Amino acid sequence: MIWSGENTLRYSRNLLVEELGEAGQERLFASSVLVVGAGGLGSPALLYLAAAGIGRIGVIDDDRVEITNLNRQVIHRADAVGRWKVESAREALLAFRPDLAVEVYPEPLTAGNAAALFRRYDAVVDGSDNFSTKYLCNDAAVLTRRPLVHAGVVRFGGQMLTVVPGAGPCLRCVIPRIPPRKDSPGCAEAGILGAAAGVVGAWQAMEAIKLLSGAGPEPGGKLLTIDTLGNEVSCVSVARDPSCPACGDHPRITEPLAPEEYDPGWSCIA
Ligand SMILES: [Zn+2]
Question: Which of 91, 32, 47 lies closest to 65, judged by CA?
Fold first, then answer.
């Protein structure tokens, strides 16, 4: 993107932020982000990434908008029910940022497409709704050395971990196994309030913005837990596990795994 009178004004408040400045803003203009899932987390993440001036955004999701999504998936309008989420999201993003390059994939993220897709972007935001896809995102990010902003949310809060391959732990270092379903009910079972997804998804966008602009300290290595009901946020430093099957010293995962090799029985947490 080239500076013009219009975008100097559009991003003027960004430019005033010392840690970002013109150099950081230009890095955002030149950056690309893939968002996995246009749901509860993806909706705010997509809008705030676009608002920040990211140059190119990809969205992958194989679902259509349902009326039960609308309590939290705020990128979709009521008249989008029945449409592909990626198409509805593209329309909303282009209405908001006509100059944005939006690439949409109305298909599931799979072992077959994940690595090639991740390589097309500078960073990945995981707004998926199931643990199998979250682990697939993790493994593909480690294999392609793309930074990944992982998160999950249910009821009033969630967790977030930024994975910077080669510079910190991955999701498997911190959560080696997918939790049993009884310990991790999904939003279709436990419920979710949309503002909680808004908080976590917007925070994911912030992580990606910091990563890509160079603002702030090196991200990664921190597990953030956000509870909006009790107004509690905890941030715990976590270390890379040298025996991790994905990012350890002798990785055993050398290509993305088929979904059944993760966990076939899991469901929605976004
Ligand atoms: Zn790891």
Answer: 91
Amino acid at 149: V
Q: What pLDDT, in 10s, does the model give residues 237-261?
A: 999 999 999 999 999 999 998 766 7
Residue with tokens 């990128």: 75
Instruction: Give the pLDDT confidence of 134-176 residue by residue, as tens digits.
Output: 999 999 999 999 999 999 999 999 999 999 999 999 999 999 8
Confidence label for 270 from pLDDT (cuts 50, 70 and 90): very low
Instruction: Return the half-sphere exposure (C-beta side, CA atoms, 13 A cut-off) of residue 197.
Output: 31
Query: Are the C-beta atoms of 113 and 107 separated by less than 8 Å?
Result: yes
Q: How far is the CA of 172 from the centre of ligand 1 (A)?
A: 5
How far, in Å, from the CA of 222 to the mean position of ligand 1? 13
Residue 225 CA, ligand 1 centroid: distance in Å? 19
Q: How many CA atoms lie within 13 A of 218 on its CB side?
A: 10
CA distance 122 to 45: 15
| Cα-Cα-Cα-Cα dihedral sign, residues 192, 193, 194, 195 | negative
Cross-strand pairs, 157:
154, 227
Ligand 1 centroid to residue 181 C-alpha, Å: 22
Distance 91 CA to ligand 1 centre (A): 37
Check: pTM over 0.90? Answer yes or no.
Answer: yes
